[in-house]
Design brief:
It comes from Rhodanobacter glycinis. The chain is mostly helical. It has helices at residues 10-17, 21-29, 48-62, 67-76, 83-118, 129-135; strands at 37-38, 44-45. It has 2 domains: 1-65, Multidrug-efflux Transporter Regulator, Chain: A, Domain 2 (Orthogonal Bundle); 78-140.
């Protein structure tokens, strides 16, 4: 059933959702958005459902989901049998990946903070602990 109640151009949709026109076209090519209806003039015509779907995609991207994960979430959003459970599992996986990345960033931050603290900010470049750490030949673990 077609739930479109408005007929907007791609430019109007892009402005309303806050994305670039090329982004909308890309999502169509990637199958995240269905091909829009065409007006007699050949211009794309979008409705409320496209706007809602674009907002879904944008919010999912802001939460760190990949396009492939978003495609899966869109599919699960209409699955009455396993949808909610599977969506929660995907969100838990994304959360775990974010937590892991945060832990890695904390290690990087701590290492950089040590280097900054140990650098006097003056003197010869070859005596700078930051520069020495960047050129040192050692394994990174």
């Amino acid at each position: 059933m077609n739930t479109q109640t408005v007929s907007l151009t791609i430019g109007a949709v892009a402005k309303r959702v806050g994305v670039a026109i090329d982004t909308i076209r890309y999502y169509e090519r990637e199958g995240l958005l269905p091909e829009p209806q065409r007006r007699a003039s050949g211009y794309r015509s979008y409705g409320d459902d496209a706007i809602a779907q674009l907002r879904f995609i944008r919010r999912a991207k802001n939460l760190g989901f990949t396009l492939e994960e978003i495609r899966e979430l869109l599919s699960l959003s209409t699955d009455r049998q396993r949808g909610v459970k599977a969506v929660k599992q995907r969100a838990q996986q994304r959360l775990a990946a974010i937590d892991q990345r945060i832990a890695e960033l904390h290690k990087v931050r701590d290492g950089l903070a040590q280097l900054v603290d140990s650098c006097p900010g003056h003197g010869k470049p070859e005596e700078c602990p930051i520069l020495r750490a960047l050129v040192e030949d050692r394994d990174e673990a």
